[in-house]
Write a structure and sequence with these properties.
This protein is α+β, with helices and mostly antiparallel strands and 346 residues long. The chain has 12 helices and 10 strands. The protein has 2 domains: 87 residues, no CATH class; 239 residues, Bira Bifunctional Protein, Domain 2 (BirA Bifunctional Protein, domain 2, 2-Layer Sandwich). Bound molecules: 3,4-dihydroxyphenylalanine. It is an enzyme of class 6 (ligase).
């Protein structure tokens, strides 16, 4: 009786074939499951006579092995055929999708360009803290106490009265000049890039933080002619030969004499446009001969040494290069804006 059943099931197993994972699972449950046929036949086997057991035992074991082997073999083929159907949607001849390469921020590009130009003249790069004390941001730079010159820069104050005066976010990178001169003796020839903060209402034309690059050159016999030639070279390198420069007298507490430098408008080449307000000139930086008081404040002999300094806003320089009408774009991290500078990544 049991023998007949097994013969029948054996035929069924031998004939069974499938590529469907579902059908195979049905097969497993039917034969190998905890309530499956194998379990049943082994239960029935317990009741057969001892003579029958001898022959039937072997048959039963072979039957069980057959079912397991069948299941295993089909399991491998259905697994690989599943992979095949998934892969069949993959057309290996299609061009690859590639991956997006990020772009450098336009301010980083401009900063790097400025640094590279001054590197050729032997300027190194120095940095200082963004949280500054009154001494480094103002007093050492010859801003008299209670003098309206301090109002030129709307300061974000952090703490009243530290060892070196009120603590504030630096309003300019000129503070790094002081730190550099305090730390050693001339010659100094360095560029000092960094972020600065001013208490301004945010608009297309003003922001509460922006970036500057400060320049300092102190040695024996440094003259205003050196300042002019250095900045002239810088402008030719950055905006191309033929770009004109002019110096207008100005006032900064830390330089004497002081000047502001204009260049011929990079957009209209001097013909007059919106960028230069139809004047043909745009201002790009402030500069001057380091005031002897500043040298002395930093422990440098002003009779022996002289120097020049300059400071420019990186946003301004970038604007003249890329014509970015709204300052806020620089800090919004809008990928659509940033992506445009992709070509300049190398
Ligand atoms: N610190 C000035 C500012 O933020 C810029 C400046 C002017 C820097 C003249 C200088 C300089 O080094 O000599 O407006």
């Amino acid at each position: 009786m049991l023998q007949d059943q097994i013969t029948q099931y054996t035929a069924e197993i031998n004939a069974f074939d499938t590529t469907s994972a579902d059908e195979l699972e049905q097969f497993r449950i039917r034969f190998l499951g905890t309530k499956g046929i194998i379990k049943d036949v082994f239960d029935e086997f317990k009741a057969v006579s001892p003579e029958e057991k001898r022959t039937l035992g072997k048959v039963l074991n072979e039957f069980k092995q057959l079912a397991e082997a069948k299941y295993q073999a089909l399991n491998e083929t259905t697994a690989s055929s599943k992979l095949k159907t998934e892969n069949s949607q993959l057309d290996m001849t299609l061009p690859g999708e590639g991956f997006e390469v990020g772009a450098r921020h336009p301010l980083a590009l401009v900063r790097r360009e400025i640094i590279e130009i001054f590197n050729k003249l032997g300027f190194s790069v120095a940095e200082g803290p963004e949280i500054e004390d009154d001494w480094h941001n103002f007093s050492a730079l010859n801003f008299p106490e209670e003098h309206p010159a301090r109002d030129m820069q709307d300061t974000f104050f952090i703490k009243k009265g530290g060892e070196k005066g009120d603590i504030a976010l630096r309003t300019h990178t000129s503070s790094v000049q002081v730190r550099m001169m305090e730390a050693g003796q001339p010659p100094f020839r360095a560029l000092m890039p960094g972020r600065v903060y001013r208490n301004e209402a945010i608009s297309a034309r003003a922001h509460c933080f922006f970036h500057q690059v400060e320049g300092l050159y102190v040695d024996e016999n440094v003259s205003f002619a050196d300042l002019k030639q250095t900045l002239f070279y810088f402008v030719q390198e950055l905006y191309g030969e033929g770009t004109k420069v002019r110096f207008r007298p100005s006032y900064f507490p830390f330089t004497e004499p002081s000047a502001e430098m204009d260049i011929s408008c990079t957009i209209c080449k001097g013909d007059g446009c919106q960028m230069c307000k139809h004047s043909g000139w745009v201002e790009i930086l402030g500069c001057g001969m380091v005031d002897p008081n500043v040298l002395e404040n930093c422990g440098i002999d002003s009779k022996k040494y002289s120097g020049f300094a300059f400071g420019m806003g990186i946003e301004r320089i970038a604007n003249l290069k890329y014509v970015i009408k709204d300052l806020r774009l620089f800090s919004e991290n809008d990928v659509r804006f940033l992506k445009q500078y992709k070509s300049a990544i190398i």
